[in-house]
Specification:
Layout lengths: L5 H24 L7 H24 L18 H22 L3 E3 L7 H38 L1 H15 L17 H9 L8 H22 L3 H20 E3 L18 H17 L4 H5 L1
Helix pairs in contact: 1-2, 1-6, 2-4, 3-8, 3-9, 4-5, 4-8, 5-7, 7-8, 7-9
């Protein structure tokens, strides 16, 4: 049975659960490695978020891979590839626009040897695939499904996209060198993790991620599958990493206001292009039978 507090409890539980989980993970890993406490906070929050979101889905109805959009049929075979190429194309259009407007320029001091470029491309692909799998399972898989059952299609898309965008600006600081970490260290650092929300460059970058989240949510519902979302997410992140290697911001550019100070590619220009992509998807992506019944 749906209760209004279930969704807020999921968010609060993920934040506090991740903050508390980071310390025991750090204590165990510190016996063998030199773990980064900041990264453990991030991964802990994502891990707890996925577990709680799956519980949320189970509480609102059946839970299975198919429910999360992870079914695999012949008609989904090309979805990951098509999604990847679409995400890569969207990033290429955005980066190309920044270059044409003089906001970005190619890095002249970068050594574009074959092996170095190949390494960057492979690393970008592997990292983007990991990020896409984790984030899509959480935001467009479990969270969107649970919200869809509780609040309906439009509210589910907006709420899941808002959480997705906001999660990218939760930036835990690095502990001070030599500082002793306690079990409550993650909770103690939480207020500082919110500092990026007060940055002047945050609104445009936040809105960019929100619109991208809406696009991914729409694709998830229209295709009734998570695979194209994973592909699109991975393609865009791959392009993001490669563009970050090849290009740089031009200081004092006439159109610098189109780029957020918090990101090398996000900003008002990204909002425009992603909104255009969202409109194209809404107009031309076929509606599946399940969505029609809703």
């Amino acid at each position: 049975m749906h209760r209004w507090w279930h969704f807020p409890a999921l968010i609060v539980g993920s934040l506090f659960g991740g903050a508390l989980l980071a310390w025991p993970l750090y204590a165990v890993l510190d016996l063998f490695l030199s773990p980064n406490f900041q990264k453990l906070l991030t991964f802990g929050t994502l891990g707890i978020g996925i577990v709680l979101a799956l519980i949320y889905v189970r509480h609102t109805g059946p839970l299975s891979p198919a429910v999360l959009g992870l079914r695999w049929q012949d008609r989904y075979t090309l979805d990951p590839l098509a999604g990847f190429l679409t995400g890569l194309f969207m990033l290429a259009v955005l980066e190309g626009s920044l270059l044409l407007l003089g906001v970005h320029e190619f890095q002249r001091n970068r050594e574009y040897v074959r092996m170095a470029v190949a390494t960057v491309v492979v690393q970008a692909f592997i990292l983007s695939l990991i990020v896409a799998l984790i984030e899509e399972l959480l935001f467009r898989g479990a969270l969107l499904t649970g919200l869809l059952r509780s609040y309906g299609r439009t509210a589910a898309m907006i709420l899941s996209s808002t959480v997705y965008a906001a999660a990218h600006f939760l930036k835990y600081p690095d502990p001070l060198p030599g500082a002793e970490l306690h079990w409550y260290a993650g909770i103690q650092m939480f207020p500082t993790a919110l500092r990026w929300f007060a940055s002047p460059g945050t609104p445009s970058a936040l809105l960019s991620l929100f619109v991208f989240g809406m696009l991914l949510a729409l694709v998830r519902l229209r295709r009734d599958s998570l695979w194209p979302c994973i592909g699109m997410h991975a393609g865009l992140v791959s392009g993001y990493k490669i563009a970050g290697y090849c290009t740089d911001r031009v200081p004092g550019s006439e159109y610098e206001f189109l780029l957020s100070s918090n990101s090398p590619v996000l900003g008002w220009l990204a909002v425009i292009w992603l909104t255009f992509a969202l409109a194209i998807c809404h107009r031309f992506c076929p509606v599946n039978a399940h969505e029609q019944r809703e």
